[in-house]
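Handoff note, outgoing to incoming analyst
You'll be picking up this chain. Sequence as last confirmed:
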Amino acid sequence: MYTFITQYNSPNYTPGSDAKSVWGKPRTIEAIAGHWWDDPLNNPSFEGVLNTLMNPARQASAHFVLTGTGRRVAMLVELADASWATNSANPYSISIEADPRCRDEDYDVYGELVAELWATYGELKLIRHSDVVATRCPGNYDLERVKAIARTKFARAEDNFGMAVNKPGVPAPTPTP
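Most recent structure output, in case you need it:
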């Protein structure tokens, strides 16, 4: 389980009702788009990325920002709205900005969040930001590993975010060295 933080509301988003006029496609939820905050060599912080994605001058946002440090997930944009993270995929994706260190604890929180989204929307495909636009994002994240971890979690659509738990008797995937 992780701490779900809801105190942030990014001004950088397109209301779902405006998605078609802005993006040429209505707001739908068909995929989860994986991102990382920045190159880990730059030593980015959870608080720093929140400040960046809350800044109107940056014209960028995400639905979620996560870190395994302290097991935290912040929601910045409501799921009914389109975040500004994945370019042409904005109107149909849920964007997750993940801690770029790609540690086991980051993967575990990522898997829990994906399991919770799947509980509500079905097993959405996971796409990389780089699948949509030329970028290094999401860095070294292995989305197959995220999916494998999500399948070891139990989540219910009627529960709040941050409530996913390990399925009884299902071994967690082996950490990558």
